Amino acid sequence: MAASISLLVVLAALALSSASSFAFPHGHGGGPPAFLFPQFYDHSCPKAQQIVKSIVAKAVAKEARMAASLVRLHFHDCFVKGCDASVLLDSSGTIVSEKNSLPNRNSLRGFEVIDEIKAALEKECPHTVSCADIVTLAARDSTSLVGGPYWEVPLGRRDSLGASIQGSNNNIPAPNNTFQTILTKFKLKGLNIVDLVALSGSHTIGLSRCTSFRQRLYNQTGNGLPDFTLDAGYAAALRTRCPRSGGDQNLFPLDFVSPTKFDNFYFKNLIAKKGLLSSDEILFTSNPVTEKLVELYAANNELFFEHFAQSMVKMGNITPLTGNHGEIRTNCRKVNHP
Fold first, then answer.
1. Burial group, residue 202, by CB count within 10 angstroms (0-12, 13-18, 19+)
2. Residues tagged in the binding site annotation for substrate
């Protein structure tokens, strides 16, 4: 009992450290201090957030999956060079696009929605709202529109002048990474174990390809046996559309109970050994702290929403470009002056 109480105290302390200040001074380059804060565009582009939300709402109404795709786009941007819209850049003479990395190729989506938002904002207030802020706002609005929490987004990011396919290949957690590898990738970005579990909860919406979890069905550890942490009945159902070979692109809900609603069923599924990806299920099977967090979120949707919002703010504050650094792209797919 005493051990359980002390673990909860640790979790509470970690959760508090997940909450980030809205003000983030730029820490290098010798430029003037600059800050992220929710009111950044209140005078320069007062309709900015309204425009983002309306276009995201239209896209999600057209295709429910787009909500998850836009949240994932934000994640895959921030984990590479920071939240600087590098993931949006197409390949050019000087840039190798992150869109072609292993985690992103034939998988990352939502670029056309960002393009539409950018075009509308350029018309409303030219050369003012960054692509990086658009991606961040779109992730928040996507979450809220499908039943998840709403939070104030610190704004004022600027856009990168380059991309890093190496960073995209190496920094983004993969479905078959070990628990320690995933936790290390989070810690390298200043995120802790609470952030890891809370942000993984975004898998309560969206779809995943057969190729991302096939090894769990047939050969988890190289011995020709399925993953013993995967419910046998659930595994049998998955095998009907995810064979040993072929069907790589077949799609499956990450949360089979409520795949288009942002809720805590993702965590309930993990407890039932029905997490789709290995990187999901190991949160319940590989570490006592994450196991306890999974149980807490499964039992308390409000707590999950609170921690998820805090962790999204924290992730959105990973090494932003501010002040005189970077630029405001007029087209999110290319730098202004190649």
1. buried
2. 173
Catalytic residues: 76
Residue pLDDT, tens place only, 22-56: 444 433 333 433 679 999 999 999 999 999 999 99
Residue 106 has pLDDT above 80, yes or no: yes
Q: Is 327 left (phi over 0), alpha (psi -120 to 50) or beta?
A: beta
CA 192 to chain centre: 15
Indicate the annotated binding residues for heme b.
203
Q: What is the DSSP letter of 212?
A: G
What's the CA gap between 128 and 117, in Å, rounded? Answer: 13
Residue with tokens 């960054």: 130
Tokens (6 digits) for 74: 């934000």
Question: For residue range 173-204, what is the model confidence (pLDDT) as tens digits?
Answer: 999 999 999 999 999 999 999 999 999 999 99
Here the tokens at position 332 are 């999110």
Q: How far apart are CA 144 and CA 244, in angstroms?
A: 37
